[in-house]
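Annex B. Sample input.
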Amino acid sequence: MRIAILIVILVSGFVSGFAQKAEKWRILAPADEEFSIDVPVGLSYSYNKGGVSFPDNRSEDISRNYGKRSENTYFFIFSESPSETLSAIKSGLDFIHKFDEKGTAISFGRLEGRKFVFSEDAGFYHTAVFIKTKAREYLFHTISEDRNNSAADRFIGSLKIEEKELSQLNAPEPKTVPATPADDEEEVEPANAPINGVQSGDGRDTGQITGYGTGLGRVSRAGPSTVSVGGGPAPSVVPDPAIRQTHNVTIRSKPRASYTDAARIYNIQGDIMLRVTFLADGTIGDITPVTRLPFGLTNQAITAAKAIKFEPARREGVAYSNVMTIQYGFWIY
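Annex B, continued. Sample output.
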């Protein structure tokens, strides 16, 4: 009995220690910003010169982006001048307003912002805060696959705003993100691959289709490549015995999945895996996402998969339904 208790304690301690190691946070409070907020280690930073020129190289002509994906949770901060012509914040708000038009009021001292909480169709849950000071506009945005996400709650809940004069925001352009350890965390080096600022380029599928396909993309054959559905092989017209044939699904064309504007602004990249049913009658049946991406990319992949043209699988000339895994890649170059 004592041995069993000791094992439980050791295992619990190991799991707890691993969780603490995986959840390293910092207090982010840049000198040329008006906010402080708890962020996960490895939050990347980039800036883009705006389309408006200001005298004395004042810092308000810079659009600053901070971003990080940690496990299944995304963290974003956008900081801009109100006169920014190519506004990431405006694009972000355009997406947000499709799901939550007005939000709710949230106060930071005498400043009032708007908080938005919503979910999109692909099962991602969003919380965002928009606030405007005399000098800057800010959008803090987190996305996760869990409705109740402690990391997202900590990110938004720790936000503080302290309005500053323009003269206090004229710090040099930083090369790294200035941050200090949160009170409950120890100092460690940044880890994980960063999400950089907005880049130009087009998302496209990767690899080539096996078979006669002409579209870009890749067919993943993880696990069994053929699975009968609907109670077994679906009957069809049996051809002349002299030309009876056996083959798997042959994809003739696989349309590309398009990037959404919001996904490009937020620099969302990755692969979406779909389990697709190729019916015996030559049409696409059920489509189930195995892996997903936010900002409409999952729906874009599903829409593209519905338009796949193919020849159904056949066994000795008889067509039958088949389930395969299809991959769509979204990458910005």
